[in-house]
Write a structure and sequence with these properties.
Layout (H helix, E strand, L loop, with lengths): L3 E5 L4 H12 L3 E6 L2 H11 L3 E5 L5 H14 L5 E4 L14 H29 L2 E6 L12 H21 L4 E8 L8 H4 L2 H10 L8 H12 L10 E4 L15
Parallel strand pairs: 1-2, 1-4, 2-3, 4-5, 5-6, 6-7
Helix pairs in contact: 1-8, 3-4, 4-5
């Protein structure tokens, strides 16, 4: 597994789970997030194996400076996980231009900024794994998902093309595409009993995702076991992207 992994959105449900797994496996993490208080708490939990810097990934220059700090103070970055994102669920006719742009920025532009700053470093060393995030909504039509589906579709296009561009440097670029997952960011959805029941009914495996489900997929992409895997979008969605279960019928 990658020995030093930079995780943006490191305090989120999935990002923090990945961080714990990396450290438990003997690696080190560089955690990047906007919430300094939560960042400090996670760094304290993980101990000496964690380096943390508060930063907004969308601040292009500030993030570039953070990457330089990590390389200088921690060491060469082997793996990158861009776990920042948002959930924007409203129909297109009720979406403002500002909302559309904000959704695209946090989900797609963040991926560009991360790759833009990390690729030159990894190209020189000819090794490294990058994991980005998509969503099940890119592979199937889901009501009110226009903005997020469009932004994450851009991420998928970025994954596939960048994977080809940088394969000759030994770099691997992949993404995971979750369905509804029990994270803090999504709690307004899964804490609503009616929404939760409706979502569970849609998933063939009969439940929504847990952060550990998605983190396990991220860890696979970071590991040497995925050494021959690049340009892939891995659905971690309980089978939702394949189809929905038939309605329950009384016998």
């Amino acid at each position: 597994m990658s020995s030093i992994v930079l995780i943006t959105g490191g305090t989120g449900g999935i990002g923090s789970d990945v961080a714990r797994r990396v450290v438990a496996g003997g690696g080190r993490v560089a955690l990047i997030a906007r919430d300094a208080e939560r960042l400090d708490a996670l760094r304290a939990e993980l101990g000496a194996a964690a380096f943390a810097v508060p930063c907004d990934v969308l601040d292009y220059d500030a993030f570039g400076d953070v990457v330089k700090r990590v390389e200088s103070e921690v060491g060469e970055i082997d793996g990158v996980v861009n776990a920042v994102g948002s959930i924007a669920l409203r129909p297109l006719h009720a979406t403002s231009l500002a909302d559309w742009r904000a959704t695209y920025e946090i989900n797609a532009t963040s991926a560009f900024i991360v790759l833009r700053h990390l690729m030159p470093l990894m190209m020189r060393r000819k090794r490294g794994s990058v994991v980005l995030f998509s969503t099940v909504a890119t592979s199937m039509g889901l009501t009110n998902h226009e903005s997020i589906a469009a932004a994450k579709s851009a991420v998928e296009g970025l994954v596939r093309t960048a994977a080809i561009s940088y394969a000759r440097y030994g770099l691997r670029i992949n993404a995971v595409a979750p369905a509804l997952t029990r994270t803090t960011m999504a709690k307004s959805l899964w804490q609503n009993e009616k929404m939760l029941d409706a979502s569970i009914a849609m998933h063939p495996l009969g439940r929504i995702g847990e952060p550990a489900d998605v983190a396990a997929a991220v860890m696979y992409f970071l590991s040497d076991e995925a050494g021959f895997t690049t340009g892939q979008i891995l659905g971690v969605d309980g089978g939702l992207s394949v189809g929905q279960p038939p309605p329950k019928m009384s016998v």
